[in-house]
């Protein structure tokens, strides 16, 4: 798919004191992207949009370049020990995305330029946990691939962890622009993951993302570059013909993944769920959505953070779990299913 080109950019003045900040300013200026200064990358105001839908679309085309001031990394259980803050949000517009709730209705894209300071903090966490490995997640609140051609942050991060025996990095993407990362010296210390879904679901709900075929093709490239590979299949929907659709997805992977990539392969399986707040935001941003959001058809499950979510009924969950585990064990017998929820 086409490269993401921001419609506008905002810079914190302090960001221009860093090499990456200066580099990004020059690149965006040369691309003809309008640039303004802002006091904080967390308070970008005055974006256009008369309706929630318009404001959302405009925010998704807006970049804010700043300095990550907090020295603490958020925890990222169960997938990693810590979040590694490279950027926040992404230009994709998936109708079900949880970031529409956590980031509000103007989820503009934030990029952090003080990468060496971020690496220094990561090293302190690694030293504190030594001699155990410390895992860092690079896509907890973002998809870092669409802006990688501008920032080079993933390449730098992959090579940083490639040099550290006690640190491991993982991230996930719905995009296929991976070519610049294929030559990175990762030393097997980065697990490169792709978020996948049935082709019909991607086409219907995952706007401004790469297609299923494009993601599978990119995964094959990444596997040939020697990266440990992983897949998140999420959210898994229960609909007429769902077994056939998800079966085709796994068969497409089977056709393209080289054999030597299958001995260290992980899958994370997440069924569709939603909260009341998420449902409200989804209906504001995508009023014509056909997402299955009927609460009476779901089971309400209380969560550990004080709020609950609507998940599929137990018999549906069991059917999805049985099918996905059977197909994966049949096709990728050596793969590890990290969890099903």
Order of helices and strands: EHEHEEEEEHEHEHHEEHEHEHEHEEHE
Taking the sheet with the most strands, its summary is: 8 strands, mixed
Spatial gap, N to C terminus: 31 Å
Strand content: 15-25%
Show unreliable segments. none
Strand line-up across the major sheet: 4-5-9-10-11-13-14-17
The geometry reads as: globular
Given helix and strand content, the structural type is alpha/beta
Overall helicity? 25-40%
Supply Rg.
Answer: 20 Å
Enumerate how many helices there are, as a single number: 11
Summarize the structure.
This protein has helices spanning 19-30, 52-59, 99-102, 115-129, 148-151, 153-162, 199-205, 212-224, 242-256, 276-285, 314-331; strands at residues 8-11, 35-37, 62-66, 75-76, 80-83, 87-88, 93-94, 109-112, 134-137, 167-173, 190-196, 206-207, 229-236, 265-271, 299-302, 308-311, 336-340.
